[in-house]
Design brief:
The complex is a heterodimer of chains A (685) and B (475).
Chain A lengths: L6 E3 L6 H18 L5 H29 L2 E4 L13 E4 L1 H24 L6 H20 L3 H19 L17 E2 L2 E2 L4 H30 L4 H6 L1 H10 L3 H15 L7 H5 L5 H10 L1 H22 L4 H29 L5 H25 L4 H36 L15 H15 L5 H15 L3 H27 L18 H19 L1 H13 L16 H24 L3 H4 L3 H11 L4 H49 L4 H23 L1
Helix pairs in contact in A: 1-2, 1-4, 2-3, 2-4, 3-4, 3-11, 3-15, 3-19, 3-20, 4-5, 5-6, 6-9, 8-12, 9-12, 9-13, 11-14, 11-15, 12-14, 12-15, 13-14, 13-18, 14-15, 14-17, 14-18, 15-16, 15-17, 15-19, 15-20, 16-18, 16-19, 17-18, 17-19, 17-21, 18-21
Chain B lengths: L1 H18 L8 H30 L4 E3 L4 E3 L1 H27 L3 H20 L3 H20 L4 H32 L13 H21 L7 H8 L2 H33 L1 H25 L6 H26 L4 H32 L13 H15 L5 H16 L1 H13 L1 H11 L11 H19 L1 H9 L1
Antiparallel strand pairs in B: 1-2
Helix pairs in contact in B: 1-2, 1-4, 2-3, 2-4, 3-4, 3-9, 3-12, 3-17, 4-5, 4-9, 5-6, 5-9, 6-7, 6-8, 7-9, 8-11, 9-10, 9-11, 9-12, 10-11, 10-15, 11-12, 11-14, 12-13, 12-14, 12-17, 12-18, 13-16, 13-17, 14-15, 14-17
The chains are: A mainly alpha (685), B mainly alpha (475).
């Protein structure tokens, strides 16, 4: 096990990485409460505070990469009894995450200034946007689990508020096709409904995280992340001895699975697309959904280090293997399942949402592969960091894709694909951006998405679990297919339904919106072209990461697995071209009846999972609630009818004994006395 | 010296309560103002007394009246919470006073409730406990009936029915406890087994039954939704967030003392008692959370959520009780959790029940908050605190309950967390209504908004001060 050396530093300036956006959100809140009306000021305050965060995170990354990790602590402890500090811990992993969150948030913030112009909830939007960025930075840099949880919940609240931003629930903000039902349950969702779904789904996972924190504290006696990392063998062996190692780790990871929308928690992300598009880009593509991935990236190396230290303990090795296998299976199933949904979807943002959950599945798959390879530390480091590499690639190209989608929806006055088409003629720059970021998502060389996905699949292949590799490869082929389908339909094919562009012809987005997505799209290409340098940077980050401290080999090497994967991706990418340009097949008629129609319905309705959730949980709860309501009514009747009625009858009966006759009273008295004697004789006689 | 000041301030509270009904001023508005101001000074005096008491009790147990009343960090903090809630409910009471013909009684009973709580929360002597129980109970019955309308009278009558039965069980508990401890004081059981085991078990059941009625623990809670859901919102705010705190404090204290004795009498008994408490806690929180999901009435949702909150508090007591002989440090952490959870509950409910009075019974009435951002944000803070979102007060309460709970029982922890998660459904529902534009222009009076904003601020500030509060429990 490698012990990572880190230097202690003062609370400032490093804590400003999360502190600056918190201050920004506070200023926005105060101005908003004071009724300040110049909208632009809110956007500028937000962007400035996030810029401070991004700049300091860049300086921090430079310092971490040149001098080693930083542990920045506030004076004194927040909760001395629990050992909870307010500290910022920046190692290789934290530095990369803070950079991604800071700079992508800044670009999306700038885009939002124009996109949200004229919105009635402009100030509210920027308050929650900035608050979200602060909470996300706190989450990735927290030095202990309680502080991490504070950031974790902060992102959840901001996400709820931003998904439900258009709470008036107008139809243009819905997700899903109005009127469509599956198994009798509605398949379209309003913003306020989606916001509640997001909270409920993620809350389930959050509670698992709380259980894990409480239990780890009891077993390890600390909730400090560096301390947990310093002696993982102690608490891992304790958990294994109690026979709950895989169970507790699974509960601990529930929060991560829910936050990152992995099966079976993926449903919330799909309907979260009711929020403004920049929100989808920031929260539901680039950052918050990555919180779960960050969480497993943070703890997988600690578990691997513990597993290596306790290599002779069968319970530990088996327990950790079961845990990483569970992560891998869920990741692979999500990657495959959500890709099948994306292939038939006809809503731009919905395709992106499916794709996001699917790609996050690859990140989990990479980390799981690392865990399964724990006996060879360098391969384990490579597997884990392939997850991080794909996280970064995905954050860049998916943020670009969402921002582009925001403009496309604005131009088409519709969230559906059908009225879109032939846009390349009108918006070349946007078209190029869509091609660049789309090819990166599809995993086409030489884009960053190709290299990072190849890294993941390489380590999955080395882990020797054929099912995981097969699901990953099929998912990669489907990804290329649905991405190219989207690009071709939007940019080059004619619209299927009548397009309604209002009075204006489609054109380029305003510069303030165009520049952010152009920058991100070009970045996804540049990152791929310089993959050699980037993979070295990831390796260095792995060396500087808590419990890992090893070189992670992410350099691309031509191998038979890489050739198979690339071939499948190219087949997937070619398929839409074949269908739309060469075959002359009318796909709409193809799905009108027969087996294909049923298959299409099954995939379009998300494998009926949403409907099943409603049937089991919502309808089941309703029945319980109704039963409780009837019980309440019965109790009410008891108080208001039965008790008064019984007392009244009793009173009447007692009064009927009082007839005003002395002989009668005498008889009752003697009878009572006889009864008392009889009872006394029975007990003591 | 400090002890005397605590007592003098307390006597002033009593005096303010007694003076109000005898002050006669012919002009109605002026009379009302004088009554209200006297009551306010009484509440402030009590709050100052509680603050001073907390500073004393945080160092060690503080005795009054030759040990008949003893306060520790838990009871002192709960009294401080009662003082704060008293101030919060006083604000809407001022305007309500204009509407009720019974207003002198309202302004007299508010400080008198607080006076009674001092004895109930700190009672070490069983007769003091009985006397203060009766005082606070009778005041609660009267307060519920004060609006003098049909709903309030019905609610009060129901409250009296159940309260009387609860008092009988309290009397029985006192008798059993006196036999077990061979004294009239609250003391660990020390009679030799096997009789003591049976009697201890009986004592626990009687205690739970008596206080279960008062605080709304399942299956003794049936009256609560009916009373909280139908009586006047301000009256319910007083009963739910002020009077109830004394019962919670005494219940906690009684169980903690029983825990000391239970371990001596029969080690296995502690586990059995904790199990009974844990089962009741899970039933209580589950019932409250499930029933709160769908009602269209704000007061009904708040009433059921009050039941759920008591469930969490009782779960904390189960943990504190079980861990006391095993690991006193974790037991203290659970007690700190009980105190903070009670505080979060009281502050939130004081302002939310009052608000319910002004916005009408329909949950859509909360949309009136939309016009006032500070109030809308404050309502959000209070609901999120009840939900347990960091870094608000309610989060720390839950966290300090859940950490030691993991040491006692993982199933209890999981059940509590699932309940906490399920409660999101109705808290978010309320939150959603509070941030929506009303269908018709509506305005909420200042006397409803002020407690909301003050409670919101208090929830944030106390959340940030939780480290200091925890320190007073664990040092």
């Amino acid at each position: 096990m490698t012990v990572l050396e880190y230097t202690y530093a003062g609370f400032l300036p490093w804590s400003l990485i999360w502190g600056a956006p918190y201050i920004g959100s506070l200023v926005i809140a105060l101005l908003w409460l004071a009724g300040y009306r110049r909208d632009l000021v809110y956007g500028v305050i937000s962007a400035l505070s996030i810029a401070v965060s991004a700049i300091i995170s860049s300086i921090a990354a430079f310092q971490v990469f040149s001098e080693g990790p930083i542990y920045s602590l506030a004076a004194g402890e927040w909760f001395p009894w629990l050992g909870v500090t307010v500290g910022t811990f920046i190692d290789g992993l934290g530095a990369v995450m803070a950079l991604v969150v800071g700079w992508i948030s800044l670009l999306i913030g700038i885009y939002s200034i124009k996109y949200m112009e004229g919105d009635a909830g402009y100030a509210r939007y920027f308050f929650f946007f900035t608050f979200f960025v602060a909470s996300m930075q706190l989450l990735v840099l927290a030095d202990n689990l309680v502080l991490l949880f504070v950031g974790w919940e902060g992102t959840g609240i901001a996400s709820y508020a931003l998904i439900g931003h258009w709470y008036s629930d107008e139809e243009k903000a819905w997700v899903g096709r109005p009127g469509r039902r599956a198994l009798g349950r509605q398949m379209w969702f309003e913003p306020s409904h989606s916001a509640v779904r997001a909270v409920l789904f993620t809350r389930i996972g959050d509670l698992g995280l709380l259980v894990g924190i409480a239990y780890l504290f009891l077993v390890a006696g600390t909730i400090s992340i560096p301390e947990l990392a310093s002696r993982p063998d102690f608490w891992i062996s304790e958990l294994a001895a109690r026979g709950i190692l895989p169970l507790l780790l699974t509960i601990f990871t529930l929060g991560a699975l829910a936050k990152s929308a992995q099966f079976p928690f993926h449903e919330w992300l799909v309907t979260a697309m009711t929020g403004p598009t920049p929100v989808s880009a920031l929260i539901h593509a680039a950052t918050m959904v990555k919180a779960g991935v960050y969480f497993v990236l943070r703890f997988a190396p600690i578990l691997i280090a513990g597993g290596i230290a306790l290599g002779s303990n069968v319970l530990v090795v088996e327990g950790l293997r079961d845990y990483f296998m569970m992560l891998g299976v869920l990741g692979a199933v999500t990657a495959f399942m959500l890709a099948t949904m994306a292939i038939v979807s006809d809503e731009v943002k919905l395709i992106m949402a499916y794709s996001t959950a699917s790609q996050i599945g690859y990140m989990f798959l990479g980390v799981a592969a690392g865990g399964l390879l724990m006996q060879e530390l360098e391969k384990a480091a490579g597997g884990v960091f392939s997850g991080l590499a794909h996280l970064v690639s995905h954050a860049v190209f998916k943020a670009a894709l969402f921002l582009i989608a925001g403009w496309l929806i604005h131009v088409a006055h519709s969230r559906f694909l059908d009225p879109m088409g032939g846009y390349y003629r009108y918006m070349k720059a946007t078209g190029i951006a869509l091609w660049l970021s789309g090819l990166s998502l599809a995993g086409i060389p030489p884009f960053s998405g190709f290299f990072s996905k190849e890294s993941v699949l390489k380590y999955v292949s080395e882990a020797h679990v054929p099912v995981l590799l097969a699901l990953g490869l099929i998912g990669a082929m489907l990804t290329a297919a649905y991405t190219l389908r989207l690009i071709l339909r939007v940019l080059h094919l004619k619209p299927v339904a009548g397009a309604d562009h209002g009075e204006t012809r489609p054109g380029e987005a305003p510069r303030l919106m165009l520049v952010p997505y152009l920058v991100l799209s070009v970045a996804s290409l540049v990152m791929g072209l310089f993959w050699g340098l980037l993979s070295e940077a990831y390796s260095r980050a792995a060396e500087l990461t808590l419990s890992l401290g090893r070189f992670a080999d992410l350099a691309f090497k031509l191998s038979s697995e890489a050739l198979v994967a690339t071939s499948l991706i190219l087949i997937g990418a070619f398929a839409p071209y074949f269908v739309y340009y060469l075959s002359g097949i009318d796909t709409r008629r193809l799905i009108e009846r027969g087996l294909l129609a049923r298959l299409h319905g099954f995939l379009y309705d998300r494998w009926y999972i949403n409907s099943l959730y409603y049937m089991v949980f919502v309808d089941g709860s309703s029945r319980i609630i109704n039963a409780l309501g009837r019980l309440d009514t019965a109790i009410d009747k008891l108080y208001h009818s039965l008790i008064p009625g019984a007392v009244s009858s009793l009173a009447d009966s007692v009064r009927s004994l009082h007839r005003g006759r002395t002989d009668y009273y005498l008889a009752l008295y003697l009878g009572s006395t006889a009864l008392a004697f009889l009872l006394a004789l029975m007990e003591w006689g | 010296m400090s002890l005397s000041i605590v007592q003098y301030l307390l006597y002033y509270t009593l005096a303010s309560s007694l003076v109000v009904p005898v002050i006669q001023v012919s002009e109605k508005t002026r009379r009302l103002r004088i009554h209200a101001l006297i009551a306010l000074t009484g509440i402030l005096s009590f709050s100052a007394s509680a603050a001073l008491l907390y500073s004393l009790a945080s160092v060690g147990e503080t005795e009054f009246y030759g040990g008949l009343v003893v306060h520790d960090s838990l009871s002192a903090l709960i009294l401080l919470g009662a003082g704060l809630s008293g101030l919060l409910v006083f604000i809407p009471s001022w305007s309500i006073g204009y509407e009720w013909s019974t207003r002198p009684a309202l302004f007299s009973l508010l400080p008198l409730t607080l006076f009674g709580l001092f004895f109930l929360a700190g009672a070490r002597d069983l007769l003091v406990a009985l006397a203060s129980w009766l005082l606070v109970s009778v005041i609660s019955y009267v307060i519920v009936a004060l609006p003098d309308d049909e709903d309030s009278r019905k609610a009060s009558a129901r409250y009296i029915y159940v309260g009387t039965a609860a008092t009988i069980f309290l009397g029985a508990w006192i008798a059993v406890n006196a036999v077990l401890s061979e004294s009239a004081g609250l003391a660990p059981f020390d009679v030799a087994p096997p009789l003591s085991v049976k009697l201890s078990a009986l004592a626990v059941v009687l205690l739970l039954t008596a206080f279960g009625f008062k605080t709304g623990i399942a299956p003794f809670h049936w009256w609560l939704p009916s009373v909280y859901g139908r009586a006047n919102g301000v009256a319910v705010a007083i009963v739910a967030s002020v009077a109830k705190l004394g019962f919670i404090a005494f219940l906690a204290k009684a169980f903690i003392y029983s825990a000391r004795g239970a371990a001596i009498v029969e080690p296995g008994l502690a586990g059995d008692v904790a199990l009974i408490l844990a089962v009741a806690a899970v039933a209580t929180m589950t019932y409250g959370n499930v029933a709160a999901m769908t009602p269209a009435s704000i007061r009904a949702v708040l009433a059921y959520s009050s039941v759920a909150q008591i469930g969490y508090i009782l779960a904390g007591l189960a943990v504190a009780f079980y861990l006391y002989p095993i690991d006193a440090r974790f037991s203290q952490l659970a007690i700190a959790g009980v105190a903070l959870q009670t505080l979060a509950y009281a502050i939130s409910k004081a302002s939310l029940f009052s608000l319910a009075h002004f916005v009408g019974d329909d949950i859509r009435g909360l949309r009136a908050l939309y016009t006032n951002r500070a109030a809308s944000v404050s309502a959000g803070i209070l609901l999120l605190s009840l939900l347990g979102v960091p870094p608000l007060l309610g989060f720390w309460g839950k966290l300090f309950l859940f950490i030691p709970m993991a040491k006692y029982s993982l199933p209890l922890l999981v059940a509590s967390l699932i309940n906490s998660g399920a409660s999101s459904a109705y808290y978010i529902r309320l939150l959603r209504e509070a941030s929506r534009a009303p269908e018709e222009p509506s305005k909420i009076p200042r006397e409803a908004l002020a407690p909301l904003i003050l409670a919101g601020l208090a929830t944030v500030v106390l959340g940030l001060l939780s480290p200091i509060i925890l320190y007073t429990f664990t040092r």
